[in-house]
Automatic annotation (TrEMBL):
Transmembrane regions listed in the UniProt entry: 21-41, 53-71, 106-122, 129-153, 159-181, 193-216
Name of the encoding gene: ccmB
UniProt xrefs under InterPro entries: Cyt_c_biogenesis_CcmB, Cyt_c_CcmB_bac
Keyword S-adenosyl-L-methionine: no
Species for this entry: Paraglaciecola algarum
Designated name of the protein: Heme exporter protein B
Length: 221
């Protein structure tokens, strides 16, 4: 536990030292959502209809920007190899690093989403459904994404391959998340969609750390 606590403090400290890279996903998220109404027009009903999908697609693409550096620096400076040899459970260490990624790269997107929802004319029920889906669903982006990052960490220009691997995997999450917000717009219950997203999250939380650990060991061989 002491080793995991030290890893958590180290990764948080490194993340906030690299503020330029830390801001990239947030700035991309803001730019996509604020520019989108200029492309499709300011008609409120149109924006309300496509708004949830726009926000979720922007969140997925923004998370990919932050995922590439999840293990990159540790692989390049040898810290990842030392972590594997340290005796700290690698699955638990991977979960800590994924949590730091979500905390620093994705949580700011959720915090700023109320302001951006105004640009897309989302109603209050739609906004709350969007927040719930983001809170439950975005950890899945980090957990599943970290598996692909672990497999591609040793490759040059792995960002394109990372996107090709992950975007099809995230389609079911995108479908259920936007369906929940659409149900909220029609004053319908969306607990079923949230339950499915929650089940996806629990399944990912149970299996992804071990898959990440295996992928990292493979990348080191």
């Amino acid at each position: 536990m002491n080793g995991l606590g030290a890893l958590l403090r180290r990764d948080l400290s490194l993340a906030y030292r690299q503020r330029a890279e830390l801001m990239q996903p947030l700035l991309f998220f803001i730019l996509v959502i604020t520019l989108f109404p200029l492309g499709v027009g300011p008609e409120p009903n149109t924006l309300k209809m496509i708004g949830p999908g726009v926000i979720w697609v922007a969140a997925i693409l923004s998370s990919l920007l932050g995922l590439e550096r999840l293990f990159r620096d540790d692989f390049q400076d040898g810290s990842l190899e030392q972590l594997i040899l340290s005796g700290v459970p690698l699955a638990a260490a991977a979960l800590v690093k994924v949590f730091v990624h979500w905390l620093t790269s994705i949580l700011p997107l959720i915090i700023i989403s109320p302001l951006l929802a105004l640009f897309l004319h989302l109603t209050e029920p739609m906004y709350w459904a969007l927040v719930f889906t983001l809170l439950i669903g975005t950890p899945i982006l980090s957990l599943i994404g970290a598996i692909a990052v672990g497999l591609t960490v040793g490759l040059n220009r792995g960002g394109v391959l990372l996107a090709l691997l992950l975007l099809p995997v995230f389609i079911p999450l995108l479908i259920f998340a936007t369906s929940a917000v659409e149900s909220a717009s029609m004053q319908l219950q969306y607990s079923g969609q949230l339950a499915i997203i929650g089940a996806m999250f629990l399944f990912s939380l149970a299996l992804a750390p071990f898959a990440i650990a295996y992928a990292l060991r493979v990348s080191q061989t």
